[in-house]
């Protein structure tokens, strides 16, 4: 999931990650790329990183982006999700990947998906759509169905 970060640094982007992953990215992005210089190496820019613990809200005065920790995940410590409150869209990777359209839910709900739903409800996020970064955009009903619950 880290592909393109050096190019993003070259463009001047601030990289947002969990506070637990921050030391890793500081160390990795400090390494030079001198054999075949990439965009970051050629730009001379130093990475600007921001660690998030729990929750962080970004706004430009009109739009809001919320970054939330996914607590108690079996997938990874420091697992994060992004919520767009105006759009009511939840963006995540690896916590929920919907099956093909019109397929029955799994016989046993995926523990990562159950945990994602728990975190969504814990935070009282008013989600209507989910954008799984490994799948197609779906409605929140698809997540409820996948874990065997009704919304």
Describe this structure in words.
- This protein has 151 residues and is of the alpha/beta class.
- The chain folds into 2 domains: 1-53; 54-151, Metallo-beta-lactamase, Chain A, CATH 3.60.15.
- Helix content is 25%, strand content 24%.
- The chain contains 5 helices and 8 strands.
- Strands 3-4-5-6-7-8 form a 6-stranded mixed beta sheet. It has a two-stranded parallel sheet with strand order 1-2.
- A hairpin with a 5-residue loop joins strand 7 and strand 8 (138-139).
- The mean pLDDT is 96.
Intertermini distance? 30 Å
Largest sheet: 6 strands, mixed
* Total number of domains: 2
Low-confidence stretches: none
List the helices and strands and how they pair.
Elements: H1 5-10, E1 14-18, H2 22-29, H3 39-43, E2 48-52, E3 55-59, E4 64-69, E5 80-84, E6 89-92, H4 111-122, E7 129-132, E8 138-139, H5 140-146
